[in-house]
Amino acid sequence: MSWQTYQLTKKPVRIPTKSELNARRKYAFGYFFEKRHGFTFRDLVEQYAPFLQEVYFPWPGLLSAREIEEKDPAAQRERVIDDMRFCRSKGLKLDLLVNATCYGDKALTEAQRLDYYANLEEMGKAGILPEIVTTTSPYIAIITKQFNAAIDRRASVNMRLNSTTAMEYVADEFDSFYICRDIQRDQPTVEMFAEWGKKNGKKICMLANSGCLRYCPWQTFHETLLSHDFQHIHNEMRTMSLPPALCVGLIKERNYEEILRGSWIRPEDLHRYEPYISVFKLSTREADRPDLILKAYTSRSYDGDLLQILDPGFSLLVRPCVFDNKAFPKEWSEGKIAGRCAIDCTHCGKCAEVLKLVFKRDPNAPDYSKLSMSAPKKARTPGK
Q1: Would you call 379 helix, strand, or coil by DSSP?
Q2: Among 39, 88, 178, 219, which is least packed by CB within 10 angstroms?
């Protein structure tokens, strides 16, 4: 099967057994407006509802971590209402995103509170008041509880909660937490978070397929850009020859090992974390192939280009080469490579060896065997 033709058909998926449902109905799927590769959002919910626990969605008029192009906000809200009612009919919980990293001069003001409540009231009247609100704002969490104490307040992955101490500080404000993706590959750490959650009555969740750099120093800067009209920066980016994100610049320079050092979990390796995680979030709102992402993670197997099931995936930057997901060694799945060690990488050569196994090209493409891979960056000399 060629990499280009690997895609999901519209055939119904096999209905899992009751025991499989209990084990596998742990995924959160992200809402999107436009059709992707022939599939609407509803098409995918219809097929994969038996595996889904939640749907997370933005609300036109409320700022979230990804800007919504609001051509007609009222019409968009009507569409969201219709689609969320459909999700409810499939037994899925609704998770409202209020997870921007910056709310400007409206943050922690009466105006923000009243506007937020007005939007929640509109959702309530429409029958889609969410069971969950995912936010980066302790203020939003507090006023959500005041509005309706039954709503689960979830700490966003953008809060980068990387210790149980951090979760303790906000335990009164939040009911569930996304573990910081930078540390989530380390299984003992995930287990420690889960034990803390069980002791304190909190759920621990994980973003499974993030393609972002681990410990990316641009993350807050980039997330803020994404929330606030990302299109306006393009002219200055071109003028200054600046990439839109740190990861894009590194991949263009063929630093492909950085992809391996990320925080994503392969579908085949998800079982290692399943005992500790209540919800596996699949990043699909902006992904090019949400169909492949759902197919791969719900089946726990993927025979294709790994980059196509990550978000961001970088597949366009790497073509005609691919990362063969089935070529990863056993040691990778056991967490012996790019697990805890990638937190403070010493460039020991292990990722370079894995890259030789997984980095492949179309046989009809030019010879890419001599591509330079990543190497430790030299410290910059002050004043130069």
Answers
A1: coil
A2: 88
Nearest to 213 by CA among 257, 178, 175, 253: 257
Cα 239 from Cα 312, distance rounded (Å): 24
Mean pLDDT of 365-377: 45
Peptide bond into 243 cis (omega under 30): no
Could you write out the DSSP letters of every residue in 115-180?
HHHHHHHHHHHTT---SEEEES-HHHHHHHHHH-TTSEEEE-GGG---SHHHHHHTTTT-SEEEPP
pLDDT at 1 over 50: no
Phi, then psi, of 176 in degrees rounded to 5: -145, 160
Structure tokens at 135: 């936010």
Average the pLDDT over 186-202 and give the result: 96
Class of the CATH-defined domain 18-361: alpha beta
Contact 94, 101 (CB under 8 A): no
- Residue 7 — φ and ψ, nearest 5°? -155, 160
The secondary structure element, H or E, covering residue 296 is helix 290-299
Question: What is the reported pTM?
Answer: 0.85
Q: Which residue type, as a one-letter code, is found at position 357? A: L
Separation of alpha carbons 63 and 58, rounded Å: 8
pLDDT 10s digits, 210-224: 988 888 876 777 677
How many angstroms separate the CA atoms of 301 and 77, rounded?
A: 36
Tokens 């120093």 sit at which residue?
A: 217
Give mean pLDDT, residues 7-32: 64
8-state DSSP, 362 = -
The token pair at 309 is: 């099931």
- Residue 32 clears pLDDT 70, i.e. is over it: yes
Pairwise CA distance, residues 4 & 2, whole Å: 5
Determine the 3-state secondary structure of 72 from DSSP.
Answer: coil
**Domain spans in the chain, listed from the N-terminal domain onward:** 18-361
